[in-house]
């Protein structure tokens, strides 16, 4: 979360959209749903190897969000939903940035990031026991998809304001896992700080400077610069940047009481360079941008919802691809199978390319972007091919295939 | 008539690159500016959503227009019409061609267009930014052609550096070579461009590899080394960590504009900020006006002319957006019609402009803009037109004269193997061999870019290739294979010949030709001299030698039905306008021979400055935008010093 | 195409494949099939269109690609037949134009000419930084 550019207080902050009140009921149920889906474990990670493993999971976590986001993004008909396209696109670009930054961190602590050996089999749970109740599908752009994306990006710390009864309910179900991606990263950060302290005590460090780092020479156009890691300060900055952009460190919007004098939650507006993905998806669902005067707090006059400039969201202007496309559901040798296989090959090649780029050949990432674009055009082509059922179109299967 | 009650420090006409550089520089230095722009309000709105929607509207219009000429994405308004290449037609003797905005009196039509709207013609420029050569500033003394500039290359050098910062030039200094080019002399041994070079195309590589080192071409009776260099250009690439500067800032104590490394303008906070120490590169690519994270690299849209969809290519809106919003007032849909002067002192006392609501209605209100200093930055044709309409600044009788352009002779053929054109920026490599030499006494010099976009310019390929094949009865796989065989082998070379200043190539006005608001339409008189025609003949021979050595099958075809044709020694040549509208109010040391002094200040009116390519006494072989931008910084500095007094 | 597809749309798609040299799945992948089919309906005399599709049905029923090719050449390509519809369909798919007018923004960006020429429509489907330094991308994995 970058607050440096935000605008100061505005007397018109109390303006509300008329729909906000009536939407509020469903919004509260929605928050509750997310929280009940979540459960808490305090993961006590000790060794450097454990940290590397967790970071590998973190990278897979970032990667897992990309196919669902891309599927929704590419299903939007060209020339329509321009604002939604821009919002989802900016989120995906940042997720990829996160993935590469985590790879930088893995390299910095002497690990080997592995990309392209694993991809979720959608519909899938998120890796690393993050929000174990949440199943993420590959589906077209819709209110449901956007709600799922909000859940993925939900700010951390939600459990703190659950009632005792609700907490008990979760404990009884025996669910384990992290309440959100933010909490997952917090555990990593804590472990990392601890490990570095232990190493420092012995006159050592867990960090290797300038090891296989991808820099902004290779990665560009994301909200924020890519961070390279040579020491603990860099590493903390990197994790804060990821958590800030993704789910926001605004967990307190749910745990602290709303104070109308405090403008800490006024974090929006056209001059704010970027704000958490969770809120960006909310903008799509309410087809309005956040106004400069809006607060992120759910007890604020705007109930934490966007009340700014409206924009058009046309939920029907989509290619209605059949959710969760799979290669195995297609008949081998058909033209559609061949086209789908070609997509999978491109996806496999792309991950291989990113893997190599994050393992000492950073310049390869430049070509990776060419592959990214190619992947997009292939996905869009598939989504235009009608299926026999007369309702759906074909869609991209994000699967890894043999590469020879 | 309504009198403007506001008083500004400076009134600027035009939001193209010239006007935008002046507006940005002056407001950042604390001056109050009024900017008049003839085009629509929507094009200058910098709010994220509005800017994005407007630009996507341009892009959509580009997609939907059949003839994708440079002006095609942009609105052409009856109240502020733009010259458009689509209007060019052959001129019958003694009968001006009036099809379009320009009145073409001939004998041949002026072949270039411009756009009158927010951002000006940089919205559709290609983006090539080679500097002029030192010898270009001394054409009269060295070659007895044209005139000398009022200063030499070294005087402009610091301003070139500012222009390269502002535009964001990507290039490799070490690779710049050719006649009259050496790194030390032209750039300084430690100089770098802000960004690394734009990669040269696969097509460039396929052409270059055909020529062994030391290969010579013959023209004007002599052998010359054929060389290829990467073209510096105003599109985003990888920031160069060696580049030290973060912004151009006015130093009040030294009375100078300076490139420096400590602070930079922040378009979010609208103020200067310190550059963080840990930042490895001082230069950050400037992204799209609606989203600074977009367009940090050229993405290979291959549509720079007419529109870069991601704004990775520089346009003047990027500079205008850096103006201090507290100090700039913008009036759009405001067409400057007349400069008013005080008869006794000669000082300018206001600029009359016509404000319209509906761009196609002839209803308007007249206003007068008032300031201490006035700047016309409306492009070379419009500046001349406004001065002539006002009857001012013309004691030299040079206003409107010496209209110049690069006369571009194109040659095209098929490579023996696929070079895969229609990809990447319009041009990434040029041949500098013909840019300077003794031959300039006898015929024009030229720069010769390799075009990355096949035969698109002269032949409307690849659409015409499909149409011709289908007309000939091809269909099915035969058609597909034919297109696949021919189009990827297309090669196009430009020979962009430096036109010399001729007093009778000129912009005039005539009360018989008025536009929708009753403003004058420019009347253009234009011809090609023998100095140009001889160059065509020599360079066609150069093209023949290049094609032969590279195994390129020549498909070049010149006809007398092409509106811009020339005959020389019994042969016909065709040429095209480069969009480089230059001359018309040249600078000089002598008020009898020039309109403005070395700072762009008119000799006749101490508080009137002219900005733009109209100031250039000669054209050189460089695309003129960079040089014009350098001059605009020089003028900005002069204005700041004048306002101090 | 699905079983819900009208017969004439199916004929249009299949004859388009023979006229353009592109597989039907590639034509479907442009998303333009129905738009182009409707463009014909909107611009051409209904009797001519009906006769054209009748001819297409007969031609497509022929045995073997060569027979189909010969029949197309003699029946659909000559300018005088079916108001020149055969050639117009090719130009529509390749260029996105009908009588020199761009049918829509999508029609321009989906033109087959760009694929045939191993490139992309200028201003759309950009391939990314540095792509032009190498041959067009080919997935070989």
UniProtKB/TrEMBL annotation, chain A:
InterPro entries: Ferritin-like, Ferritin-like_SF, VioB/RebD_dom. It comes from the Bacteria. Coiled coil: none annotated. Pfam families: Ferritin-like. This is Ferritin-like. Residues 55-285 form the Iminophenyl-pyruvate dimer synthase domain.
From TrEMBL, chain B:
The keyword Oxidoreductase applies. Its cofactor is FAD. Keywords: FAD, Flavoprotein, Oxidoreductase. Residues 501-632 form the Glucose-methanol-choline oxidoreductase C-terminal domain. GO terms for molecular function: flavin adenine dinucleotide binding; oxidoreductase activity, acting on CH-OH group of donors. InterPro entries: FAD/NAD-bd_sf (IPR036188), GMC_OxRdtase_N (IPR000172), GMC_OxRtase_C (IPR007867), P2Ox-like (IPR051473). It holds the Pfam family GMC_oxred_C. Residues 286-408 form the Glucose-methanol-choline oxidoreductase N-terminal domain. SUPFAM superfamilies: FAD/NAD(P)-binding domain. The keyword Transmembrane does not apply. Belongs to the GMC oxidoreductase family. This is Choline dehydrogenase. It comes from Roseivirga pacifica.
UniProtKB/TrEMBL annotation, chain C:
It comes from the Bacteria. This is Membrane bound FAD containing D-sorbitol dehydrogenase. It comes from Roseivirga pacifica.
């Amino acid at each position: 979360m970058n607050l440096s550019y935000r605008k100061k207080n505005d007397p018109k902050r109390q303006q509300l959209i008329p729909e906000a009140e009536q939407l509020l009921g469903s919004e509260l149920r929605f928050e509750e749903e997310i929280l009940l889906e979540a459960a808490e474990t305090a993961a006590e990670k000790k060794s450097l190897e454990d940290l590397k493993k967790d970071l590998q999971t973190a990278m897979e976590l970032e990667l897992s969000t990309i196919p669902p986001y891309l599927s929704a993004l590419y299903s939007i008909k060209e020339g329509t939903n321009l604002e939604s396209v821009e919002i989802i696109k900016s989120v995906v670009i940042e997720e990829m940035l996160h993935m590469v930054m985590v790879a930088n961190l893995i390299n910095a602590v002497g690990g080997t990031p592995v990309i392209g050996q694993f991809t979720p089999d959608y519909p899938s749970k998120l890796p690393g026991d993050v929000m174990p109740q949440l199943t993420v599908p590959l589906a077209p752009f819709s209110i449901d998809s956007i709600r799922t994306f909000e859940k993925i990006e939900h700010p951390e710390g939600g459990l703190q304001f659950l009632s005792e009864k609700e907490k008990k309910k979760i404990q009884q179900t025996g669910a384990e896992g992290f309440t959100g991606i933010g909490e997952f990263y917090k555990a990593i950060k804590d472990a990392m700080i601890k490990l570095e302290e232990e190493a420092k005590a012995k006159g050592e460090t867990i960090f290797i400077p300038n090891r296989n780092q991808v820099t902004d020479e290779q990665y560009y156009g994301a909200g924020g610069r890519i961070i390279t890691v040579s020491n603990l300060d860099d590493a903390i900055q990197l994790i804060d940047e990821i958590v800030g952009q993704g789910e926001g460190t605004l967990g307190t919007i749910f745990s602290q009481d709303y104070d109308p004098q405090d403008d800490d939650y006024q974090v929006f507006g056209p001059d704010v360079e970027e704000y958490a993905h969770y809120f960006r998806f909310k903008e799509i669902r309410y087809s309005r941008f956040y106004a400069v005067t809006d607060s992120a707090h759910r007890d604020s006059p705007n109930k934490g919802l966007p009340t700014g400039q409206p924009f058009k969201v046309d939920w029907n202007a989509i290619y209605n691809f059949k959710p969760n496309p799979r290669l195995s559901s297609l008949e081998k040798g058909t033209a559609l199978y061949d086209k789908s296989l070609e997509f999978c090959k491109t996806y496999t090649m792309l991950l291989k390319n990113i893997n190599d780029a994050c393992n000492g050949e950073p310049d390869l990432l430049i070509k990776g972007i060419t592959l990214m674009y190619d992947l997009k055009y292939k996905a869009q082509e598939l989504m235009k091919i009608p299926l026999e059922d007369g309702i759906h179109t074909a869609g991209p299967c994000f699967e890894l295939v043999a590469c020879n | 008539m309504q009198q403007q009650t506001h008083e500004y420090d400076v009134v600027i006409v035009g939001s193209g690159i010239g006007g935008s550089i002046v507006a940005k520089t002056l407001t950042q230095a604390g001056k109050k500016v009024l900017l008049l722009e003839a085009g629509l309000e929507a094009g200058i709105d910098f709010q994220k959503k509005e800017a994005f929607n407007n630009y996507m509207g341009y892009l959509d219009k580009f997609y939907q227009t059949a003839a994708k000429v440079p002006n095609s994405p942009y609105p052409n308004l009856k109240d502020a019409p733009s010259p458009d290449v689509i209007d060019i037609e052959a001129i019958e003797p003694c009968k001006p061609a009036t099809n379009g905005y320009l009145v073409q009196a001939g004998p041949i039509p002026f072949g270039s267009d411009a756009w009158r709207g927010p951002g000006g013609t940089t919205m559709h420029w290609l983006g090539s930014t080679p500097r002029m050569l030192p010898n270009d500033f001394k054409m009269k003394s060295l070659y007895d052609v044209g005139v000398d500039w009022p200063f030499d290359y070294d005087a402009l050098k610091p301003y070139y550096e500012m222009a390269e910062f502002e535009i964001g030039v990507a290039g490799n200094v070490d690779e710049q070579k050719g006649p009259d080019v050496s790194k030390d002399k032209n750039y300084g041994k430690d100089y770098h461009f802000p960004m690394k070079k734009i990669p040269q195309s696969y097509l460039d590589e396929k052409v270059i590899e055909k020529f062994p080192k030391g290969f010579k071409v013959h023209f004007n009776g002599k052998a010359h080394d054929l060389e290829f260099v990467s073209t510096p250009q105003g599109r985003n690439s990888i920031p160069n960590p060696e580049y030290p500067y973060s912004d151009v800032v006015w130093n009040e104590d030294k009375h100078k504009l300076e490139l420096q490394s400590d602070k930079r303008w922040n378009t979010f906070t609208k103020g200067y900020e310190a550059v963080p120490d840990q930042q490895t590169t001082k230069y950050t690519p400037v992204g799209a006006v609606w989203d600074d994270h977009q367009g940090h690299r050229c993405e290979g849209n291959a549509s720079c002319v007419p529109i870069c969809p991601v704004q990775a290519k520089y346009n003047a809106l990027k500079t205008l957006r850096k103006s201090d919003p507290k100090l700039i007032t913008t009036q759009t849909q405001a067409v400057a019609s007349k400069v008013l002067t005080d008869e006794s002192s000669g000082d300018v006392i206001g600029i009359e402009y016509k404000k319209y609501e509906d761009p196609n209605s002839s209803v308007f209100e007249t206003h007068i803009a008032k300031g201490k200093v006035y700047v016309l930055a409306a492009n070379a044709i419009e500046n001349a037109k406004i001065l002539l309409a006002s009857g001012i600044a013309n004691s030299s009788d040079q206003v409107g004269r010496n209209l110049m352009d690069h006369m571009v002779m194109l040659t095209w053929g098929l490579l023996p193997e696929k070079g895969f054109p229609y990809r990447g920026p319009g041009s990434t490599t040029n041949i500098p061999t013909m840019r300077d030499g003794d031959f300039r006494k006898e015929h024009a010099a030229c720069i010769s870019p390799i075009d990355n976009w096949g035969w698109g310019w002269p032949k409307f390929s690849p659409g015409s290739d499909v149409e011709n094949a289908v007309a000939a009865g091809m269909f099915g796989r035969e058609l597909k294979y034919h297109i696949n065989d021919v189009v990827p082998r297309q090669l196009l070379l430009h020979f962009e010949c430096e036109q010399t200043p001729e007093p009778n190539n000129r912009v005039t006005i005539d009360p018989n030709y008025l536009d929708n608001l009753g403003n004058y339409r420019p009347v253009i008189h234009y011809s090609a001299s023998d100095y140009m025609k001889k160059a065509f003949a020599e360079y066609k021979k150069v093209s023949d030698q290049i094609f032969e050595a590279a195994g390129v099958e020549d498909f070049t075809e010149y006809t007398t039905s092409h509106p811009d044709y020339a005959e020389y020694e019994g042969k016909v040549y065709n040429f095209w306008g480069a969009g480089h509208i230059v001359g018309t109010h040249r600078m000089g040391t002598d008020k009898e021979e020039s309109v403005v002094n070395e700072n762009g200040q008119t000799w006749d009116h101490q508080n009137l400055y002219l900005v733009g390519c109209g100031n250039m006494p000669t054209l050189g072989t460089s695309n003129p935008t960079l040089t014009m931008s350098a001059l605009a910084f020089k003028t900005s500095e002069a204005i700041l010093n004048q306002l101090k007094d | 195409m699905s079983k819900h597809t009208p017969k004439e749309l199916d004929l249009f798609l299949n004859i388009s494949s023979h006229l353009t040299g592109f597989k039907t799945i590639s034509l479907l992948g442009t998303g333009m099939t129905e738009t182009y089919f409707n463009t014909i309906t909107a611009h051409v005399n209904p009797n001519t269109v009906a006769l054209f599709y009748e001819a297409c049905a007969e031609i497509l029923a022929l045995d073997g690609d060569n027979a189909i090719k010969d029949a197309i050449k003699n029946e659909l390509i000559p300018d005088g037949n079916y108001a020149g519809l055969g050639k117009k369909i090719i130009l529509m798919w390749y260029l996105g134009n009908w009588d020199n007018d761009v049918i829509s923004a999508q029609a321009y960006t989906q033109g087959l000419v760009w694929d045939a020429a191993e490139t992309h429509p200028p201003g759309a489907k950009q391939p990314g930084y540095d792509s032009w330094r190498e041959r067009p991308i080919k997935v070989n994995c």
